[in-house]
Structure of Glutathione S-transferase:
Amino acid sequence: MGDEVILLNFWLSPYGIRVRIALEEKGIKYENREEDLRNKSPLLLQMNPVHKKIPVLIHNGKPICESLIAVEYIDEVWKDQSPLLPSNPYQRAQARFWANYVDTELYKHALRFWTTEGEEREGARKEFLECLKLFEEQLGDEPYFGGNNFGIVDVALVPLFCYFYTFSLYDNFISEAQYPKIISWAKRCTQKESVSKSFPSEELVKEYLSQKRQHKG
Ligand SMILES: N[C@@H](CCC(=O)N[C@@H](CS)C(=O)NCC(=O)O)C(=O)O
């Protein structure tokens, strides 16, 4: 019998996009189940009773919560194709460090940018861009953060570029002149089918944001 793989998700979630990319990279068939985050399903509450958040990967009935943990799990279970973590222990530790840094720093500033206004929002933008400089250095002249291979740091980071660069939602948020390496990395990543397939539709995102603005206004 084949594996049953279900993803409890919300289409706009950058965390959900990570899990989708990892599943696509491995060529795993899965069922994406959309959650209404204002009215969470009993299944979500049962599968993630601690945080009650998406994404939750359900593999043969067992839940795996937290997007980066799910990405590592996918890599370990389907280890024969497209490795997402390096086999060398030191490089693996480094990859985990940077993936964790994306979560603790970059996502924090991104979230603040999305949820605040005025000065605070401007501060979040600056801190985000400041942090991104470290990633520009870290990337160096490699095609991916995983060197020649697309890996967990790429998976962790690229969903943010869907909003801050690819869909140009916030007027040249990341300038090509200041971040040439990161921008060419983002272009390289989005040319991958696993990535472009996992991004939500640009039209839907723009519609969602314009409705949000109208509600505020
Ligand atoms: N650290 C978590 C973050 C997941 C997360 O924040 N999910 C949001 C959607 S983007 C959510 O489910 N929010 C619902 C809530 O907070 O009630 C991960 O990496 O999976």
User: Anything to note?
Assistant: The chain is about 55% helix and 10% strand.
